[in-house]
Each structure stands twice: as C-alpha cells, then as structure tokens.
Known about the structure:
This protein has about 575 residues and is of the alpha/beta class.
Amino acid sequence: MKYLTLAVGLGVSAAAVLVVPGSGATASMDQATRVDQAHPVANRYLKQRPVWQPCGETEYRTYCAKITAPRDWANQYSGHDIQIAVSKVAPVKGKPSRVVFGNPGGPGGAGLGMAPYLASQAPLAKDHLAVGFDPRGTGDSTNVTCQGAPGYTMDARDRDPWNLDLIAEASKLSQPYCDRQSRGLLPYVNTAQTVQDMDLIRQLLGFDTIDFVGYSGGTWMGAYYQTYFPQHVGRFVLDSNTDFTQPWINTFLGQPEGFERRFREDFATWAAKYDGQLKLGSSPRTVIRTYERLRAALKKQPAVEEFLDGSIKISYDQNTLDEIVSGDMYTKIDFPSLAIDLAFLRDLSAAQTKGGPRAAQRKVDALSLARQHQLVRRASRDTVGLRPLGRIVGDDAEGATFTAVTCNDTPWPQGREYGDQMAGRLGPKYPLLGWGVNENPCFYWNRPNLTMPQPTGKGLPTTLMVQSVHDPATNYSLAVSAHNRYAGSRLVTVTREGDHGIYGGVNKCADKIVNTFLTTGTAPAKDVTCVGEGIPAPSPPPGDEYGAGEHGYDGTTPLRRIAGFTKAVSGYLH
C-alpha cells in the first residue's frame, strides 16, 4: 500500500541580522575553493558542441541539450565534470537578434520550462532566442540530494526545552545527509558556480550579451550574474525580489511578516467579506480565530485519513494546517481552495472529536473521487517560488539544491542560541511562520571557503525590478532595500496585489512595461506604480479543476505556467 504524507515546514525570520561565519568545515567542504571572481573558461569546455534534440510536444518547438561544465570553476583541470541541461526556443521566422535567459527561482527550481514560457510571450517571440536551464544540483542537470534527512515534525510553537533540543538535532543532521549522498558536489552548488555555468551557455550559443528574466530566487541569480559578468549584461528584469545586496538571511528575515500580512490583511479580509458563502467568519478577526481553533484541535487530535480506496494516507495536524495556509498565500488563485479546505478540515476535526476516527474517515469516504484527488494533489504539491526555510530538507534535488545554495552562498549566524532567540521574538508577532525561525540547517552549516562580491549595480545598464506590495515570500521591503542599494535600478510597484511572480499574466500594466523594456531597451525614467486588480469574488470551481478558476486576467500564474512547461519538456535527455 502506498502512503503519502505531507511535508511540514515553517519559515525563518528575524528583526535584525547578526552574521557570524561558521567555525569549521567537513572534509568535503574543506576542498571547496574560494570563488570571488569570474574565471576564464578552459578550451575543452568552449570547444564542445551540444547535441540539440526535440524535447516535449512539437507545439512547444523546444530543443534541449546537455553541456559539460567543471564541478569547480576555480579548478577546471581536476577531472571532475558535471552536466547542465539547457533548453532553447528560436523565433518562428528569421534569425534571433537577441537571447533572453530565464530562471524561475527556488533557488533550485528546475528551469527548462523557461524557454517555452518566454517564447510564449508574443513580444519576445519575434526576435529573441529563449533559453532555460536546470541549475547545477537539480532537474535534468547533475543532482544533489538530501534524501532521508530528518524534517521538522515537531510543533514550532512548543518552547519546551526537549522540543527545542529536537529541532536543533534535526537541523544539525541535515548537512551530513546531504553531503554523504551528493558525491562531492554539495560545496559547489552555489550561485558563484551557477553564474559561471550561465556564461558558458552564453558563449556556446554565440551571443555577446544576454537579456534575463528572473523570478523570486532568480533575482538573486540575475544580480550575481550582472556582478560577475557586467560586460555581458543586456536587459535584466528581476521579479519578486530577494534582497540580493545583502546576505541570504536578510531575505528570509522578511518572510514571517510577509506571510502574516498576506494571511491577515488579504485572505482573512477577503474570506470575511464573503462569509455568507465561505462560512469562516464575518470579520478578519473571526477568520483568524477559526484557523487558530482548528490548529489547536488538530494538534490535540490529528486526523489521519485514507484517500482513494486506502492507497494514500494524509495526516492532518497543526503543521499540515500551517503548510496548507502558507502554501496558499503565494497567489490569490488559491484563496477559494484554501477557504473550502479550511471548512472541510474544521468539519473533519469536529467529526473526529465527536465520533472518533471512524466518523472522520466516513466524511472522507463520502467525498467524490474527484474531490479526493484534489485534496491529495494539494497535499503533495511543491512550492512554486521562494519557499520558507525549515521545510523538509531533502527527498528531491530541488529541495537539496535550495538548502545548498542558501546555506553555501553567504554566512549565517552559527549555533542554536540565535535561532531560538529569534523564534521567541518573532513567533508572538508573526505566528504563522515566526515560531519556526530556528528550524533551519543553515545555522549549523559548515560553509565552503567562499566569498562572493556584493552586488551594487554600479556601471551596469538599467535593471528593471517588479514587485507586488503584499508578496508573502519576498517581502516588499526587500525590493525597496535592494532597489535603494542597486545603482541604476527602476522599481515597478504593483499595489492592491500580493501575488509572488508578476510578469506574464498577473498585471497588464506591469507586463506592458516589462515587454517594452525587453524588446526596445526603454525603461521607465523613474520608479512606476501599477494598480492591481484586487482579489475576485469566490466562484464555484469549474468541473473537476478545484480552485483553478478564472482569477486574475490570465487565469493562472506565471510560476505555475513555467512549472508546467518544465514538466512537459523534462526527461528527454536521459
């Protein structure tokens, strides 16, 4: 019998940053070389001729290839090579005059789907070669893994010493699992190495400069490519921004506030407005109370239910609930689904309290097969965008790459004390994620000997930044901070909006500005504000596509479209 359990995770945040580099290194980490500048490429990598082959359906017009790159760009003659999977889509007619690279974020998100996605943007499709790639560590490129590493199954709100001990032990065990299974690659899964891979792709494609669209964690990658290779920078668009001018911890510091604001000010207000239909509470306060009461009930008595004739089991406890809520904050499209699921879980928990586990299971068995499939899909979905730290570390390459990049790139405060103090400070203010600040392997991570130059934007062409004001995963304050520090940048602020990932179907005003910039090079003379369209009223789900109705002007989200393209064109290079 196959069982599926829901991964649990909460985010990391703090009110201030104290950066204390790690004090030691594992054996494999000691071998890592300091990378603080671009390295000339050895001829053997430049002379390779990628073998392009169709990937995905014919309608995607996508071709994929693998290129060979050194495991360590600072030591290209060591004999340790890796493979990077690359995708491209050419214009329907004529030879492309420019090339646009893309990255969906993560960090660690597979990016082969960026090529067909960017090619689906009509203004770009005319004369741009669209390029995507799976960054080292993930997707169809050479992988790292942390499979089997312990997750955080304890309740982050529990401040008992024994619970804090468990959190610390789980965090400490992450790196040994990741390192042991990644065959020496783990120290070299970082942004300094990845942007070198990017530039190798540029050279093999024969372009002097590249344009770029990066979402979420891809804004970090874009800014560092600009820093390492300023002479090859074209038109760069950074959407849903990390603070790439500061260490990684600063970006994650903003998440508890961002998610809490999105939940309380956007979702709860919206749900209360439509209480007659959703039945979660007639005011934002009572909607939040519904969540808190349900959380307490599921902590006291988790609901462990079997779906699809017993083939899949889902355990609904307080962590599962937090994961569902935080996962649905990335886009307003998910608000109706969250509202319906909260009502279902409230009824499920009440049935269990009154009649026991069998009564709860009967409620599940009474659901249609389509509804059960919907609940299973939502329970097993991956985060699309910058995930909160503290989610389960391993079990796939994307999660392992996320952990490696965020822990390897820049220093973190080391040890238990800092994380525990921050959790105690932030939890009461931002309970959805704030209590989980200490659930973080980076506080115990032995980094490679790596110092990357700080991105400043000096001497670069204009960088266009796009940001919604209530983005939960990349707090608006991060974009403002990076913009203020990044010379020559222009910030497009989207008000009345909180979606994570804007360009390509969320806001017509922002799309027009971005497309004008990418196709003509004309950027706004100063910062610009676009007005969002607000959160639409809930509507009955169309057919079996639960919670996927026409919300926003495109009916989907850019990051999910990219993930769909990636799934469609992946797996053809094995």
